[in-house]
Each structure stands twice: as C-alpha cells, then as structure tokens.
Amino acid sequence: MKIINVVGARPNFMKIAPIQREMTKHGSIKPVLVHTGQHYDDKMSRLFFEDLEIPEPDVYLGVGSGTHARQTATIMIEFEKVLEREKPDIVLVVGDVNSTAACSLVAAKMGIRIAHVEAGLRSFDRTMPEEINRLVTDVLSDYLFVSERSGLDNLRREGISEEKVFFTGNVMIDSLVYFMRKAEQSRILDQLALENQSFALITLHRPSNVDVKQSFAALLDAFAVLEKEIRIVFPIHPRSRKRLHEFGLEARAGRMQNLLLLDPIGYLDFMQLMRRAKFVLTDSGGIQEETTYLGIPCLTMRENTERPVTIEVGTNILIGADAKRVVPEARKILDGGVKKGVIPELWDGRAAERIVDILSR
User: Fold this and answer.
1) Pick from 97, 12, 4: which is nearest to 58 by CA?
2) Pairing state of beta strands 90-94 and 199-203?
3) 205 has catalytic annotation
4) Backbone Cα Rg of the chain
5) What is the tens place of the pLDDT at every residue in 112-157?
6) Residues contacting 48, CB < 8 A, separation 6+
7) Which among 68, 205, 237, 245 is annotated as catalytic?
8) Minimal CA–CA distance to 237: which of 271, 282, 268?
C-alpha cells in the first residue's frame, strides 16, 4: 500500500514525524513524503527536519509564498502531477494549513482516498483561514483521525459518518514524548544565560496580534511592564519581525533590557525553553497542546480556540486579543495562581501507532 504523506509548513513537521517513523516499521506500507514548500524558509525547514529525524522528502514542490488563492492553486497544480506519477492508494494530510486543503481537493477529484490527521477541530471562526481548511478537508476525507473528544462531537454534528471517524489521540504529543530526552541535551538555556522558571516564553504571529500597529504597540507596552518583573524570551516569527520593522517599533523593543528577541529556533531548543519557562504567552494552536501536556501555564491571545480540551482539563487560559489582560494574567501566575491541569485522554505518545495500525488494516 503506497501512502503519500503531505507536509507544507512547520506545524505539520511535528505531526508527520511520528507517522512517517511508524509507517517505515510496516512492511505492508510504502510511505512517500511530499513537502509542498508552503513554508519556504529553507534553513528553518531543514533544521526542523533534522531535529525531528524526518527523512529527506521524496518530492519537494517548492511552492513558496503568495496569497491564499495563489498558494492553494499552485499546490494543486503541482500535486496533481505527483499523484499522476505516483498513483498512491491513500493521501495522508495533517493539520489545517493551505497544503492540507489543497492536496485533499486534488486527491478527492482523482478518486484517491484521503486520511486527515487532527480532524474535527473547530474554532467556529470562519475569519480564520485554518478553519476553512479544516472544514473542507474533513468533508472530503475517508479516514478522520481525531485528537480530542470535541472533534468527535463536531464531526457528528456535521453529519460525517461515524464509520470514517477514529479517536486516536494527538500526534503532536507523540513527537513531544519521543524527543523529550533529546531536548534535555539542548544547551539553549546556557547559551541565553537563563535559569529554570526565570523567564516567560512568547510566540505571536496571528494577524489580530501583529498586523495592526496599535495592537502590536499595546503588546510592547505590556512587555515593558512585565520585563521589570521577569525576563521575556521572544523567538520572533518572520511575520512579526517584519511588522515590527514596518511599524517603526524596533527601537521601542530594543530599549527593553529584559526582552530577548531571538530569530526562530529549532524544535528541540524551543521544547527545552517551553519546558523550563514560568509561563508561555502564545497565539499558536499546537503550543496550547504542548504546554497542557507539560503542565506549563499558557496564556492564549485569541478570542477562541479549536482545542477546547486544553482549557477544560489543561493549563491553557484564553485571554482574548486584548493586550491589557496580559500583565494582570501574568501577575496571577507570578504570584502563584497557577492553573493545574491533567493530560487529556489518549495523549500518551502512541497516536501514530494507532493511526498506522488502522490504515494497515
């Protein structure tokens, strides 16, 4: 059985790594790894592939950046050629990036079965491109692998046949568990002169937080207050770095002695920072899951989340896109008001094993 595994952007890499690894153990499965190149920073792509021990892609499409329509269309044109040549039995897609929806559309129109890993997640906010990608992919998929129980409820409500749906757990956590010991060998804390729980870790890239000057400036105002109480480590997304420059805010950030702006870093170094942080402030989806598994307090700067289990049983707190809430919520944590969480059901490092077992049968 030939299965094409699709990756396109950094969030996909952590999800595909355990699946690709598990498939290589099965003599009955031939995995073919296709990287669309939606995330086009070659250095960062390469670093994640090395950290996650992902083999070189069998096919690299190199689609690069562009508007949503242009990028999706380019992926579809190039991926169609791959399917015509490879003739796979199944196309497996992960997550909710443009590559996920684009490759699913092509496979569906060519009559090739689709497996969607991380199916059923919903923010119920259609202004998010990712939400559109999730909805499209789930409607087209033949195998829907769900990471949390809210996904089962959402798919049932949307009329997806229960025969197609499998609750398998979270492949992001598979990578976290598998590489935990390796991340311990990271020297990033020494390199940055950081002590355990002596710093806050920040990741921000969503338009609501960084694409409007007033919003980004308000965040920097909050950081200016916080950095007097705790060191702030901010591996800055290229999008956020660009906006910082465009809005003329670089000098303001540079004046904060306790704000450490870093270039994007690899998976293992980031995991080590996350594990040792006092708390994390983010607008990422995956980081909400990782902090919940690690028991690290997480403040999420979004109005909604497609991962409600991280709030219901995990360490995640949704604080909206209002920068005024950052300081008071952070101070609660600094004063010992830490939200306790538990590890969600089936987040045990064996999700990929379950997925591949189902596909092989």
Assistant:
1) 4
2) unpaired
3) yes
4) 20
5) 999 999 999 999 999 999 999 999 999 999 999 999 999 999 999 9
6) 10, 13, 14, 54, 266, 267
7) 205
8) 282
